[in-house]
């Protein structure tokens, strides 16, 4: 018997990607889809690429009968899940894709997201959803908080290096490029084709991006002392994909060895042969993260490049990976599809 799942926010980009992934998942069945402005519409009318699927109609969340449902994916804008999850029946397992439950310190949440947290008990119970590092906790969790997509890309590169003690923790500089689907599907002037095509621009520079809160939390916990990285994201004219170029001080071979060893048995994190660097196009449409390492000509400088698909490994793929664990399924179920290329 497959597990019944609902997707809240199914008319958004991550919602549609969840549907695309789950459509061929042998153990999950979509029984409810919610939307806000698009409630009442057929999913195939909102997303013609999903027209061939037999899917429930989009409804308001309040219209869903959760009694026969096992797990809920929340793909809602920031700030909505906390109040909503608090009202849902407690038999449900929840995978939240937004930022509501990522930060363990409520003061940090308020600082970065501009409003007090309204479900502190749920926050305490939530497990951070970076599967490869929280696998055991996720297996027994009722509520999992998906990571930020930029945050996942950078953490896959840096966590093993901080753990292994092979880099200078005070010299971490990260330059990241990401695609426009990361901003969601709702209309925004600065996301218009005429403004994004043929352009590259940084944003949230100077330490203002909210994913810094996840870096601060996670990296400092691993190191056992405060770690602060320099992080500048840039928007590039691609639909999906994130590529982080990280400049470090350390021995390149030791950096490579730490990453290769840490991910040797991980099905979704691929460390390329030393000296090779990945491209966004190598992972788009998939749940894979590719990492490359090379030495700089300046002795003691190392370059690490990490790339993943923001809508897949950065959100919906990660969400399904976590749902698999929470439901006692093999972690890779439904997720081994190869990337789309070219
Ligand atoms: N896009 C990405 O790459 C990533 C996104 N995330 C997170 O995932 C979540 C979803 O992101 P994304 O799919 O991009 O967002 P979208 O803007 O594309 O979709 C948002 C969804 O939420 C619904 N919604 C909006 N307002 C309300 C409301 N008041 N009540 C109920 N439903 C509402 C929308 O419905 P309707 O359209 O019908 O109004 C839509 O289905 C966010 O928290 C985001 O931060 C995480 C990692 C990566
Ligand atoms: C292009 C673009 O705007 N990208 C978003 C990605 C955010 C994301 O998806 O992560 P959250 O779940 O934390 O929102 C950004 O950098 O803010």
UniProtKB/TrEMBL annotation:
Q: Which UniProt keywords apply?
A: Amino-acid biosynthesis, Arginine biosynthesis, Cytoplasm, NADP, Oxidoreductase
What does the record give as the active site? 149
Localization, per the record, is: Cytoplasm
Q: What is its pathway?
A: Amino-acid biosynthesis; L-arginine biosynthesis; N(2)-acetyl-L-ornithine from L-glutamate: step 3/4
For this UniProt entry, which segments traverse the membrane? none
Q: Mind listing the GO biological process terms from this record?
A: L-arginine biosynthetic process
GO cellular component terms, semicolon-separated: cytoplasm
Per its UniProt record, what InterPro entries does this chain match? AGPR, AGPR_dimerisation_dom, AGPR_type-1, NAD(P)-bd_dom_sf, Semialdehyde_DH_NAD-bd
Top-level enzyme category: oxidoreductase
List residues of the Semialdehyde dehydrogenase NAD-binding domain. Answer: 4-141
- This entry's Enzyme Commission designation comes to 1.2.1.38
Annotated Pfam families: Semialdhyde_dh, Semialdhyde_dhC_1
GO molecular function (one): NADP+ binding
Which SMART domains does the record match to this protein? Semialdhyde_dh
Question: Catalytic activity annotated for this protein?
Answer: N-acetyl-L-glutamate 5-semialdehyde + phosphate + NADP(+) = N-acetyl-L-glutamyl 5-phosphate + NADPH + H(+)
Q: What is its main location?
A: cytoplasm
Task: Check the record and name the NCBIfam families matching this protein.
Answer: argC
Question: What is the purpose of this protein?
Answer: Catalyzes the NADPH-dependent reduction of N-acetyl-5-glutamyl phosphate to yield N-acetyl-L-glutamate 5-semialdehyde.
> What family name appears in the similarity comment?
Belongs to the NAGSA dehydrogenase family. Type 1 subfamily.
Protein known as? N-acetyl-gamma-glutamyl-phosphate reductase
């Amino acid at each position: 018997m497959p597990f019944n799942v609902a997707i809240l926010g199914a008319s958004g980009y991550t919602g549609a990607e969840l549907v695309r992934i789950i459509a061929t998942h042998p153990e999950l069945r979509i029984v409810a889809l919610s939307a806000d402005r698009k409630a009442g519409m057929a999913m195939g009318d909102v997303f013609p690429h999903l027209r061939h699927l037999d899917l429930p109609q989009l409804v308001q969340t309040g219209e869903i009968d959760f009694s026969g449902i096992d797990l809920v994916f929340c793909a809602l804008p920031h700030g909505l899940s906390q109040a909503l999850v608090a009202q849902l029946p407690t038999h449900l397992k929840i995978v939240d894709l937004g930022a509501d439950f990522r930060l363990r310190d409520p003061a940090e949440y308020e600082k970065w997201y501009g409003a007090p947290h309204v479900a502190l008990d749920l926050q305490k119970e939530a497990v951070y959803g970076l599967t490869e590092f929280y696998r055991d906790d996720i297996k027994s969790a009722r509520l999992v908080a998906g990571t930020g997509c930029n945050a996942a890309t950078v953490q896959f590169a840096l966590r093993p290096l901080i753990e292994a003690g092979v880099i200078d923790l005070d010299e971490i500089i990260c330059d990241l490029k990401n695609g426009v689907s990361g901003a969601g599907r709702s209309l925004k002037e600065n996301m218009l084709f005429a403004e994004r095509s043929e352009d590259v621009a940084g944003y949230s520079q100077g330490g203002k991006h909210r994913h810094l809160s996840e870096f601060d939390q996670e990296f400092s916990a691993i190191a056992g002392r405060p770690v602060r990285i320099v992080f500048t994201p840039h928007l590039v004219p691609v639909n999906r994909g994130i590529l982080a170029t990280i400049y470090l001080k350390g021995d390149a071979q030791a950096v490579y060895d730490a990453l290769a060893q840490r991910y040797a048995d991980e099905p979704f994190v691929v460390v390329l042969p030393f000296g090779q660097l990945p491209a966004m196009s190598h992972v788009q449409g998939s749940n894979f993260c590719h990492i490359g390492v090379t030495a700089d000509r300046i002795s003691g400088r190392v370059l690490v490049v990490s790339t993943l698909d923001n809508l897949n490994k950065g959100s919906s793929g990660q969400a399904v990976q976590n749902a698999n664990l929470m439901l006692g399924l093999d972690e890779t179920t439904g997720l081994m599809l190869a990337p789309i290329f070219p």
